[in-house]
Amino acid sequence: MTAKKCRGINKDGSPCDAYALDGSDYCFHHDPDCADERRAARSKGGRARHGRHIGPVGQSEPVSLDTAADVTALLKRTIDDTLRLENSLRRARTIGYLSNLFLKALDVADLEQRVLALEHLLERRKDER
After folding, report:
1. In this structure, are residues 27 and 8 in contact, taking their beta carbons and an 8 Å threshold?
2. Is 20 helix (H, G, I), strand (E, B) or coil?
3. What CA–CA distance (Å, rounded) separates 14 from 36?
4. What are the distances in angstroms from CA 128 to CA 11, 53, 116, 121?
5. pTM of the model as a whole
6. d(Cα 76, Cα 80) in Å, to the nearest integer?
7. Rounded Cα–Cα distance for residues 17 and 48 (Å)
8. Tens digit of pLDDT for each residue in 38-78?
9. CA-CA distance, 113 to 101, in Å (whole number)?
């Protein structure tokens, strides 16, 4: 026994390729009897996507951004928070972007440490004279 295809027509004029619902000539998207269910599903999906947050908004601890190490710590925390979100293209792009910033911040933090070490060495030599 073969499942029957939907008799509906897509917006572009092509025939619908989905399978028809049991007892109907149409799929869920084209069946006129499912209009209220489709509307409710769209509304529910829209509500599910809006207003998401990981924790209490605006109640996080103050962030210090005085050094490159502070920035890398913030980026680590932000990447970790982003990884907890639902998987999506937007999430993947955000993680990629933040990871790129993190790598740059690591380079700056390394240079910052090297400069501080050199300054400390120069101060010691100056004091020895």
Report:
1. yes
2. coil
3. 24
4. 83, 56, 18, 11
5. 0.49
6. 6
7. 28
8. 888 888 766 665 555 555 555 567 788 888 888 999 999 99
9. 18
- The predicted pLDDT at position 13 comes to 94
Q: How many CB atoms lie within 10 A of CB 72?
A: 18
The answer to whether 28 and 34 have CB atoms below 8 angstroms apart is: yes
- Rounded to a whole number, what is the largest CA-CA distance in the chain? 97
Select from 106, 43, 120 the least CA-distant residue to 75. 106
- The alpha carbon torsion through 72, 84, 94, 111 (nearest 10 deg) reads 10
DSSP three-state, residue 57? coil
DSSP state of 66: S
Q: Kindly state the average pLDDT of the residues 8-23.
A: 93
Which candidate, 81, 51, 77, 52, places its Cα nearest to that of 62?
A: 77
Task: Indicate the residue type of 35.
Answer: A
